[in-house]
Amino acid sequence: MSFLRDLYAALIRIALLVEMQYRASNLIWLIGMVVEPLIYLVVWSAAANAQGGTLGGFGPHEFAAYYLVLAAVNQITSGWHMWEFQFRIEQGQFAFLLLRPVHPIHGDLAENLAHKLAMQVALLPALGALALAFRPHAELHAWSTALFPLALGLAFAVRFVFEWTLALACFWTTRIMAVNQAWFAVLFFLSGRVAPLALLPAWLRALADALPFRFMVSFPVELLLGRVSQAEALSGLALQLGWIGAGSLMLWWLWPRAVARFSSVGN
């Protein structure tokens, strides 16, 4: 444990220094993170007003609360390393990563955590300004607010493990961009980013409940906003742990087989 503590302290410190060199790209990333939910907030608020003020239990102020919390949750749970795997394979970078005495996943996890820490400095004030403009409203409960950090951490773990595992497909097919795009298309609809899952048709909501995507983004949002009961909250947390276990098991099984297929050549 002391080795991992020192390892992550060093990796995160280095990653934070790197983050400081990419302030412009981080600003662009931040704008995208804020603009996407802002667009859906405006669209669904207009739809609610057209329906007499509410739509599926959401009014404009409830939509504001949902999408502002969603912006924060999506930023904290999101990752980008699955998009880098193709470049790593094509450029032979994995040859160097595999020579290190630690699993490559540790470096990616540390970079992800450092990016999250750096982005909060700008994201939270931006969301605060939007809250003043749109006046969000939600029925907050002490118990759900207390469970929210746990659900958020588990959501990050579910998403990170599954996306890192999916990225291993690069070892079998070098070009994986189409796989990534298909994954994000499904994630986009079934994680509550396009619309709150309560607004989806019953069969699509059942599909979202049966797959891990809801537990990567939507579930922590619903929990914080008081849109799940205590029993549903405990069930959701248990399902998050189950999906983390399933994703970790797949990663444990696939990793040695993926590495066995890797070959690197050079002069």
Describe the protein in words.
- With 267 residues, the protein is mostly helical.
- The chain has one domain (2-261).
- Helix content is 75%, strand content 0%.
- The chain has 11 helices and no strands.
- It is globular.
Chart the SSEs and their pairings.
Blueprint: H1 2-19, H2 23-50, H3 60-77, H4 81-90, H5 94-99, H6 104-134, H7 142-167, H8 177-190, H9 202-210, H10 218-224, H11 230-261
Tell me, what's the shape? Answer: globular
- Binned strand content: under 5%
The figure for the number of domains is 1
Helicity range of the residues? over 70%
Could you say which structural class the secondary elements and strand pairing correspond to? Answer: mainly alpha
The total strand number stands at 0
- C-alpha end-to-end distance: 39 Å
- Rg over alpha carbons: 20 Å
Low-confidence stretches: none
What is the element string, with H for helices and E for strands? HHHHHHHHHHH
Counting DSSP H or I runs of 4 or more residues, the number of helices is: 11
Sheet having the most strands: none
The average pLDDT score comes to 89
What is the gist of this entry?
The protein is built from eleven helices and no strands. With 267 residues, it is mainly alpha-helical.
Keywords:
267 residues; 75% helix; mainly alpha
